[in-house]
């Protein structure tokens, strides 16, 4: 019986690792793929709005299945109190800005570089845990942060140009801002979810995503109302745009499931493998060339991510 349980757990973890790796690897590639002549023909605010709407729908469908199997209980009922709901607008707003920047950063970086620079959010998340939640960081984790910064910098070195880095300052600035926003939002969201651990994750996701829908609708109206009114909501959309939207929605759901049900090593494996897959796929799709600094930087980042996961302070 114990062997069957271990086998089932191993299979479940393997599926999560593979799914998260595929989703993470394809995320940057799909955003880059939707650009035409270096620009987005579609409105990025409409795409972001659809991502949040789809996540909201997926959470509701999953919740309906829970109700069918378990019935409506105190922990999975959708109606709630103002005190529980009032905390969700903050992370929803942070994710709004971070997710919009995710599109604009591709003006300055390629998909492999984006995948490497994304790991800067490990530093921001760790430091924010230390500052605001008084979570101790081990010496190994502090060393991992330094290695991570070194790896990201090394990967962006440009050996064949007079410019020191492949990525422009604007790209670095956006990557750092995204890391800070992701760190703040991640720490805040985790604190919300673990404040009431028995609460069904689909209910928690629904309230987070419904505020995301509202805020993204507001951003869409403010930024692109005239363009949408003149050309239509789906102007410039292609099949790759819809695939990207589905990918982003599933990625968001997958990350929340990993936070709730899997351990940190799942994210470590998926992050490290995703950097390699993104680089290899970009070579064929976009003519990306592997350089020695990029390979060395990616290896350093992978080691740093692993050390960070293994160096948790007790």
Automatic annotation (TrEMBL):
Residues that span the membrane, as ranges: 15-34, 46-67, 87-109, 116-133, 139-157, 169-188, 208-229, 241-262, 274-307
The keyword Transmembrane helix is annotated on this UniProt entry: yes
Protein's membrane topology: Multi-pass membrane protein
Main location: membrane
Annotated compartments: Membrane
GO BP terms: transmembrane transport
Keyword Acyltransferase attributed: no
Family: Belongs to the nucleotide-sugar transporter family. CMP-Sialate:CMP antiporter (TC 2.A.7.12) subfamily.
Protein name according to UniProt: Uncharacterized protein
Organism: Selaginella moellendorffii
